[in-house]
Design a protein that fits this description.
With 293 residues, this protein is mostly beta strands. The protein has one helix and 24 strands. It has one domain: 6 Propeller (Neuraminidase), CATH 2.120.10.30. Strands 1-24-23-22 form a four-stranded antiparallel β-sheet, with no helix packed on it.
Length: 293
């Protein structure tokens, strides 16, 4: 478990709530969002240029589309646009959003469906859900009774979904049917001690390792597919939120973080809170699947 990579600052972003990183292979950029500022970002690590598109409402998750453009989880709907600065078109809404609710983390499965969950402002227990969006625009509730729907990712063979409902302090696995997108056999594979932080975003590497960001814990863990802790990497920020593999070889792990909620003293101690961090984890990542709609 001894592994001390050099963690660097990829971008002095200063985000209030940096989230949702995903590598867009077509343009070799890191897509990410600042939820509280209603910003969609596109970062080029080779030039350190970070483009910003300002949204009319909060955006919490984003993914490339197969024929160009983006799909995005907004506060209470899912929208697409054809180009980076194009107009938004709403394509789906949940039949019922809980009071004070909004969409949160999301990702595309191996067959190009967009999965995204919800949370409520008051973190109401069991009030939220996880949804699956088909390329046709059909939105289906896949899990109910969720409190804070967060990180999700698929095993290299596409037959296991890993999922985080943050207050449960763990990572669950589901058997996943790629063709139908159905879930079954939910089981707990990782339990995290409360003093270590709370699980937030996650991603999966080519060897099946599960990288889990620990918000309030200032670290990221790698777990083997059997749930055993393999590595713990300490970070210079306590509120690390999510992660994604990127770079031309998918061999760099990018991390988003948040500055919101930190006291002036904490911000002074954590000058990189809200920045995009990165390090070479010694293993490659899986390419992100675009949305097929």
């Amino acid at each position: 478990m001894t592994f001390k990579p050099s963690v660097e600052v990829a971008l002095r972003a200063g985000a209030l709530l940096g989230e949702g990183p995903v590598w867009d292979e077509t343009c070799e950029r890191l897509l990410w969002v600042d939820i509280q500022r209603r910003e969609l970002h596109r970062f080029d690590p080779s030039t350190c240029i970070d483009e910003v598109d300002y949204m009319s409402s909060q955006v919490s998750a984003v993914a490339p589309r197969i024929n160009g453009g983006l799909v995005m989880a907004m506060e209470d709907n899912i929208a697409v646009k054809d180009t980076w600065m194009g107009e938004l078109e709403v394509i789906a809404r949940p039949s019922a959003m809980p009071k004070g609710g909004r969409f949160n983390d999301g990702a595309c499965d191996p067959l190009g469906r967009f999965w995204v969950g919800t949370l409520t402002k008051g973190r109401s227990k069991g009030a939220s859900s996880l949804y699956r969006l088909e390329p046709s625009g059909q939105l289906t509730e896949m899990l109910s009774g969720v409190t804070v729907s967060n990180g999700l990712g698929w095993s290299p063979d596409g037959r296991t979904l890993y999922y985080v409902d943050t207050p449960t302090l763990g990572v669950d696995a589901f058997d996943f049917q790629p063709d139908s997108g159905e879930l079954s056999n939910r089981r707990r594979i990782v339990t995290i001690e409360a003093e270590s932080g709370r699980p937030d975003g996650l991603c999966v590497d080519i060897d099946g390792g599960i990288w889990v960001c620990l918000i309030f814990g200032g670290a990221i863990h790698r777990y083997r597919p059997d749930g055993c802790l393999d590595r713990r990497i300490e970070l210079p920020v306590t509120r690390v939120t999510s992660c994604a593999f990127g770079g031309p070889k998918l061999d760099i792990l990018f991390l988003t973080s948040a500055a919101a909620g930190l006291s002036p003293e904490e911000l002074s101690d954590q000058p990189h809170a809200g920045d995009i961090l990165c390090f070479a984890p010694g293993v490659g990542g899986l390419p992100s699947t675009p949305f097929y709609g």
